[in-house]
Amino acid sequence: MCRSIRTLRPPVLAEEATEDEIRAAALQYVRKVSGFRAPAAHNREVFEQAVEAVTAATAALLDGLEVRGAAGARRAS
Hints:
48% of the residues lie in helices and 0% in strands. The protein is mostly helical. It starts with 18 loop residues before the first helix and ends in a 13-residue tail after the last helix. The relative contact order is 0.20.
């Protein structure tokens, strides 16, 4: 899909993903799906809402994943 989106969970990512990394992945996803790198003014609000929604969903996913065998089976977030 979008090759520039990195895997954000251990053990691929040594540390827990930062909010900036999660938002960057969400932004890349929304750009890919919408076909816009930067939306026109009339689409900016819905574009930003989508980025925020994907950011929240991604953070929830990472928080809920149980990564076994990675640093004592800690949760990724």
